Amino acid sequence: MTKRTAWAKQQERSNALLLRLMTWLSLRLGRRAGRAVLHLVAAYFVLFSPRARAASRDYLRRVLGRPARWRDVYRHVFTFAATIHDRIYLMNARFDLFDIRPHGHTLVDATLAKGRGVFLMGAHLGSFEVVRALGRTRPDLRVVVTMYEENAQKINAALGAVNPAAKPEVIGLGQVDSMLRVHERLDQNCMVGMLADRTLLADDAATVRRMAFLGEPAAFPLGPLYMAAMLKRPVLFMTGLYRGGNRYDVHFETLADFTDVPREARQRTIDAALVRYVALVDRYCRAAPYNWFNYFDFWQGGRKAAGVGAPAPVRVPAPAPARRREARAHAELPVHEVTDA
């Protein structure tokens, strides 16, 4: 019998009424006034969400190479709140409020020119909405989002409260027709986005691979890459990093292309793609450390998910200076144990 991971079991704190109120206030009073409210929201979560606070400290210790201070945790939570708040303006087509700088966007054009669509594989790193906003500025680009059905229902309700007319098309995974719907959208030359840094089944070693991430093994799901391989499609890495103020840097990088990969080489190609994916997430976390929004015990979950007899991890070593800093941090900061919600 399987069990859900900590992130999937956490309680939903937001509700549609609150989102509608925040949307109404933000659109009428402006972004600066809305940001003032966010400081109170961030302070509340830092003070009264001990599990999220402990998970933030643990992650920040790894990525910063030193013990995380209160102001680090606050900045981490506020960055998350800011990206959520910016969805209000992005979904209401207020692109004039933003300085969005795309990097590697020619990869998207070149890949879509082949007419087979593309998987956009990201992480809970920065804002996916700002990536989708780029697609909304061009009528020839269409972005479809995939996620597990329960999460799809939650995000549809939340985004519907912000702007029902701008809701993305969401394909719920785990359904009988999920693969068929993804296949159809790819054949229509759509971009199919997914976030591939959370496992769903915490005790199923066959569905995850332990990879070194920020210096210690954690579990990453193989499902997204298996889907791309089965459908023989190209995959691009994506992330929309929040850089403060109104600036976002959107990055696209080549991850894999399964179009012409023979069956006997499929597993090797998947393994190589996962190595590159984890390395890219690691690199962008270090480049923008407050943009990582997995507020649960990511590394303990990785140890549980791998289990006894799991495949040996393909190591992605951190740079030597980072490993030395991390060793000092381990010695200076006690480990936080985060139980499932």
TrEMBL record:
<dbReference type="Pfam" id="PF03279">
    <property type="entry name" value="Lip_A_acyltrans"/>
</dbReference>
<dbReference type="GO" id="GO:0009247">
    <property type="term" value="P:glycolipid biosynthetic process"/>
</dbReference>
<dbReference type="InterPro" id="IPR014548">
    <property type="entry name" value="Ac_Trasf"/>
</dbReference>
<dbReference type="GO" id="GO:0005886">
    <property type="term" value="C:plasma membrane"/>
</dbReference>
<feature type="compositionally biased region" description="Basic and acidic residues">
    <location>
        <begin position="328"/>
        <end position="341"/>
    </location>
</feature>
<dbReference type="GO" id="GO:0016746">
    <property type="term" value="F:acyltransferase activity"/>
</dbReference>
<dbReference type="InterPro" id="IPR004960">
    <property type="entry name" value="LipA_acyltrans"/>
</dbReference>
<keyword id="KW-0997">Cell inner membrane</keyword>
<protein>
    <submittedName>
        <fullName>Predicted acyltransferase, LPLAT superfamily</fullName>
    </submittedName>
</protein>
<keyword id="KW-0808">Transferase</keyword>
<keyword id="KW-0472">Membrane</keyword>
<feature type="region of interest" description="Disordered">
    <location>
        <begin position="317"/>
        <end position="341"/>
    </location>
</feature>
<keyword id="KW-1003">Cell membrane</keyword>
<keyword id="KW-0012">Acyltransferase</keyword>
